[in-house]
Input
Amino acid sequence: MKYIDYLKLALISLKRNLSRSVLTMLGIIIGVSSVVLLVSIGTGLQNYITKQFEDLGANIIIVMPGKLLSEDGGFAGAHGAPNFAGSKLTLDLARGLQRLGPPIEKTAGVIETAGLITYRGKTIFTTSIGVSENYSEVRNTKSQLGRFISTQDVSGSKKVVVIGPSVVEKLYKNNEPLGSTLRIGTSNYKVIGITEKKGAGMGVDIDNSIYIPVTSAQKLYNMRALQTITIKADSKENVKKAIQVTKDYLGKRLKDDEFSVVDQGELVKTIESILKTLTVALGGIAAISLLVGGIGIMNIMLVSVTERTKEIGLRKAVGAKPKDILYQFLIEAVVLSVAGGIIGILLGIAGSLALSKFLSSVVTPWSVILSFGFSAAVGIIFGVAPAIKASRLNPIDALRYE
Output
């Protein structure tokens, strides 16, 4: 027999028991679609976070309170969380760093909290960011209308606010934002600008943020210190030099365990490494259902061998060789797993496209190839035992089987 004949026989047999064939494929379909979908979510999250950091520039350095780094320069883990409550970072330190000049170009002090803002009786939840005058240049956050926080706003602790596009959509509708008054906490703030749209992803809406002078934030939230100091080096090549200058300057004014200087590039690499591990883990968890689907295929094929014992005996009696029976049942198992794999891939891609409207998800070629290859392997591996059992049946005993 030719392989095309084996395939035809397999398709005829599977079509004869269509409902059982579909239910058998279900485990493979769920497994493959889960792998594709979960890997696409993990990859999308990784790409989104990396892009957000890249948008800030490759020459950004962040000073955080506490000891985040170990002796070898890596992250200190659970004991290296930023100590925002005990922060010793100040606006004077931020400005002192900027006065050092090259390789440091600009610095910005930051205090970030989450809270409620109100406009004409309507209240929404936003991220409130207290910033110093250079934040716009350091973080590449520009105003599309009005202006950003100025030196005079910071020095005078003025009650002015710059709002994101999402805040405008939620609060203002047809009203004019510029010049209006927002209530933040117990104080009123005048809207002086609207930032450019940056978009959202993975449930995080960057445009749902407001910016006020860092000195106003200190008074509003009763905070004396800064949460972070963000530094912009004059070039990507001078980042390492700027880190050393920052460490030398802060080391003379703070204790070693009171600050950490983090290179954004290294931070991105660390986050990418964590997310890659997470993505692989998600794919691995989903792949378990493929094993369950493979066991289902083996179980159904063994039942099929028992049900078709007489058919096998008859085929052997008219000249079919053991290898013919082996190939027939093996190809049936492979067809089930491959068909389930194709359907699963299509469902996974469709699910990823649907999720992309709400989350950042990216279907990767390797996840599709791996899922399909694994599903085909499942058919071969779990189809071998039933196929061998069928090929070894004695034709006399098979014909007498009731």
About this structure: The first strand starts at residue 60 and ends at 65.
